[in-house]
Structures are given as structure tokens and as C-alpha cells.
Design brief:
Layout (H helix, E strand, L loop, with lengths): L7 E5 L2 H4 L12 H5 L18 H15 L3 E5 L2 H4 L9 H16 L3 E7 L5 H4 L9 H16 L5 E6 L1 H10 L11 H25 L5 E5 L5 E3 L4 H12 L9 H10 L4 H7 L10 H5 L6 E4 L4 E5 L7 E4 L17 H14 L3 E5 L17 H19 L4 E7 L18 E3 L6 E3 L1 H11 L14
Amino acid sequence: MPFPNDFVWGAAAASYQIEGAARADGKGPSVWDMFCKKAGAVFQNHHGDVACDHYHRYREDVALMQQMGLHAYRLSISWPRIIPQGIGPVSSAGLAFYDRLIDALLAAGIEPYVTLFHWDLPLALYHRGSWLNRDSSDWFADYTRVVVERLSDRVKNWMTFNEPSIFLGMGYQTGIHAPGDRLRFAELTRAAHNILLSHGKAVQAIRAYTKQSCRVGFAPAAVGRIPHTDSPLDIVAAKSVMFGSFEKSISHNGLWLDPVFLGEYPKGLLDAFGDEGPEILDGDMTTIGQPLDFFGINIYAWERVKAKADGKSGGELVPYPVGYPVTALGWPVTPDALYWGARFFHERYRKPIFITENGLSLRDLVSVDGKVHDPQRIDFLTRYLAALRRASEHGADVAGYFQWSVMDNFEWAQGYRERFGLIHVDYQTLARTVKDSGHFYAEIIRKNGSNLPDLPLSAI
Ligand code: GCO
């Protein structure tokens, strides 16, 4: 059984994680350039100064993407490469790089899906108050205008933010990501509201300045729960955790997904925030709730829940048993997260679903035969994609899948220790080697998934 005929097969990466050239051609510093210089902030003090040197090697990388037969490539634009100070003068060299990259992708028959913000905030804007400053929504809208005016004659698939709940939570609450701050809860909800406003104004800018009809979405993470069984009670329990059960948290789906797709914060969430909730001005929710064309979602590992014994709402966590399969990062392998995620999000938000990220990290290495054998990634892909196809068969409008990641890259606070790529990168020589999983994924694309086994959920 194949996937839908027009299913989009892609792979993803992000500017700071692969480009390198951190100061080339007038690029301004980002908060990650600053953060990596803090001793101990990143594994072995790794940083993105060189990364995969994609800035100079993009033609080779696009050629490898073409070899794999990718339909699409999800890239992000480096804001400080376009506008070095975040606002003000635009870098022609920065725009020229993305001109070259987009042209190379199109020449290779690969559709670019562009994320406007994947965590590399211009450092100058951090010093102007970052997302705590309500002006951030105008800064972001103007940056979006510059990019869309330049690239929208060739780019027709846009995403505004990547995982706002993660970059806000890890960068400004726990501080284990850039910029490494630990804000008060009321500051976090203010920043979240400004990020959502930035999203809405960016959507307006895309619609206003695009040079062709286009599709707009964003790529959130989500709090996800897998029903322990497919019993109605367990399904209700999983959804009640995902879309109800409000508490004082900036991770809650109701803080991010409902305002964007339903145009409002859930009342229960604002009640839970109390006087630490965001200040909402007239018109804000209309701005935030700009219509979108698809529901992008990054899904990796979800927890399982079952109905509470006392029948109350919410769900009881079902821990994974000792020895349950995990990735090199310790994330449980939970393929049915793609099944339930596609079904739950399509049911609630009624938009075509793109899995904008899914993958695993392994400790891949180049074997004596010069190849990179990664059978666990092949098994992972088999299970997760079989589950996603099952969701499609059961009525979810599944439109595409982007593997994270096209190549090994800088995995934030873990630096280069974690390898997520379909392509191995030797960080000393920068040599690329397509892994066995890259060849396997190419076969899946060629056969539109019909070569994947027809696994029942219980076997996934
Ligand atoms: C994220 C980011 C990616 C990560 C990937 C693996 O989801 O954290 O979008 O940049 O590298 O998800 O953690």
C-alpha cells in the first residue's frame, strides 16, 4: 500500500546547525554564536563556526539530495545572515547565498520548504530585549518581508517558526540552550505572546509580498501522548492531556496551537496562568490566528497514557518497560506517535498534516568498507513510516514527511556528538557519505512507500 500520490518526501536541516561560515560575508552574530562561547554550555565546547560548511559546500549537498531523490528540502534562513543587526541594513551577500541555494535546489528538481526562524536570533536583537520586547513582532515581520520579496518568485512553501515552545523553554526558562536565560513565568508568557504575534505578522507579510500563490504553516513541537490501548477511554485520556488538563506551563499545546489555528488561548489555560498570563491587546488574537494552509509538526518520541482509574480527566502515565528501545539520545522509539499524532492533530485542526521533523540520533561511523551501516535508522524509518501510512489509511490528511536530518549536524547543547543524518559528515575532513539509511530512504521515495511492510499498529 503506497502513500497518497502527491505525498511529499523530504528531509530537513537548519541554518545554524549545518551552514558554518559564522562570520562570512558580513553575517552578524546570533545568540548561538554567543552561547557556544560560554565554557561548558555545549558538549566539549562545540560551536557552529564551521559546522558542515554547507555555506560553501551546498552544491555537493544538493547533488546528494538529488541522488536520494528528495522531492523537497526543509531549510531555514539565518536571520543574522540576511540582516546582520536584525533590523536595519540588509546584507546582499546573505541574500545572494540563499539565491544560490534555492536555485541549486530547483535545478535539481527539489522543492524548497523555507523556515524563517530556526533559533538563530540576531544577537543585536537579544540586546534589544529579544522576544520580551513587543517590537520583536515588527522586527520579525520586516525580516520576513525582505526574505519573501527576494525569494518568493521561487519559494512557495513557508514556515514561520520552528518549535517556539522549545526555543523559549530551553533558551529562556531552563537556560540549557541559547541565550541561556532563566526568566520568570510572567516574562515567559509575555515572550510567548510576542512570538505568536511575530508569527501572525509574518504570515501577513508573506501573503502581502509573495510573488506567487504559496502555502504557509509553522513547525511546532507538541506535547504528545499515545493511548496505551486503542480503547475509547485511553484515547480520550490521551487527548485530554494533549488538549485539556491546563497547568502553568509554556509547553502546553493550548498556548501555541490553539491561538494559531483556532484564534484563541483556551480559557482554562489563561485561568491556570492567572495574573502571570500575557497582556492581550485588541486585535492580537486576530493577528495571531491568520489562516494557514497546513499543519506542520515535529514528532519524535511521545509518552503513553491510559485512562485514570478514578475516571477523572487527564491520563495516567504508562512508563516504558526496562530495556525498551531508545535512541543514542535516550529517546524512546515510539512509531505509533506518528499514527496518533497525525490523527489527533488532523481531527482537531482540520489542515493537511506535514511531519516537518522525525528521526533519531545514533553513534554512526564509517566502516572499514567505507560505508555507514545504520540498520537502526532503517528499522526506525520502517516503523514510523508504516505508522504514518496507517494514519493516512484511517483518514488523516497526511501530505508529507521530512526526515530529520538530511545530514549529521550541530545538535545544539549536545554539539556534534549526536548524528541524526541520512548523510554522515566527517567533521575533520567535511567528507560526506550517504548512509545505508539514505539509500533505503531513496528506495522508499522511488516506490512512494509501497515497499514498506504493512505492519499492524500492534507490531509497530
Ligand atoms: C528540534 C530542532 C532540531 C533538532 C532535532 C533533534 O526539534 O530540536 O527542530 O533542530 O536538531 O529535533 O533534536
